[in-house]
Amino acid sequence: MILKSKICGVSDSTTLQYIINHAYPSQFIGFIVNYPKSKRYVDLKKIKELLKISKKKSFYVAVLVNPDNKILEEIKNLPFDYYQLYDCSPDRVKFIKKEYNKKIITAFTIKNKEDINQYELFKDISDIYLFDSKGYEKSMSFDHSLIENIHFDKEVMLAGDIRFDDKLEKFLKIADIIDISGGLESSGLKDISKIDFFLNNIKQINNET
């Protein structure tokens, strides 16, 4: 199995260019579009500038928390490949997917087994399941063993207080994609040296498996 990566919360062109042009670029790059509580939030004007940068081999992901129609209309012509949706009902996700013709990463914030089981409501509309902590903009973790023995019908993306130098091999049995944000930062800003370590680590794991 190839372990993929997503670097989330990118908010400046230098970091974005570095990821895209890395020898082993991340498959997914996420931008916080409508959640100002996050220090990684990027306003619409800046997002439009960032997305002028060619994504090359990566996919651009709009991270959206219960988005209203206004923001969806404002970003509909931007070159996002995926919408990553938090706090949306199955009917809402279905509407967004059909109306805007985007692939969907359905995000579930996890505290217990009941939270995990919500994925079954989104089977027909999700392209990827994301299991995250309840922290949202904060780097928190959840008990990964909750998803360890479930056979999902989609790719699984895993987030929640993952560090740049974690032994990522431990996630191979439960995730297809590692989603990391705060773990790549120093003093609240993306750290190029940590990004480099992380991407090289992903490559090394894939060479060994």
Named CATH topology = TIM Barrel
How many separate structural domains?
A: 1
* Radius of gyration over C-alpha positions, nearest whole angstrom: 16 Å
Order of helices and strands: EHEHEHEHEHEEEEEH
Sheet with most strands: strand arrangement: 1-2-3-4-5-6-7-8
Kindly provide the name of the CATH class: Alpha Beta
Going by helix content, strand content and strand pairing, the class is: alpha/beta
Question: Which CATH-level-2 architecture?
Answer: Alpha-Beta Barrel
Q: Main sheet?
A: 8 strands, parallel, barrel
Number of helices: 6
Shape: globular
- Average pLDDT taken over every residue: 93
How much of the polypeptide forms β-strand, as a percent range? 15-25%
Distance between the termini: 7 Å
Got a strand count? 10
Low-confidence runs of at least 5 consecutive residues? none
CATH superfamily: Aldolase class I
Please tell me about this protein's structure.
- The chain has helices spanning 13-20, 44-50, 69-75, 90-100, 113-116, 192-208, and strands at 4-7, 28-32, 59-65, 82-86, 103-109, 128-132, 155-158, 177-180, 185-186, 189-190.
- With 209 residues, it is of the alpha/beta class.
- It has a single domain (4-208), classed as Aldolase class I (TIM Barrel, Alpha-Beta Barrel), CATH 3.20.20.70.
- The strands form two sheets. Strands 1-2-3-4-5-6-7-8 form an eight-stranded parallel barrel. A two-stranded antiparallel sheet has the order 9-10.
- The termini are close together.
- 34% of the residues are buried.
- The model has no long low-confidence stretch (mean pLDDT 93).
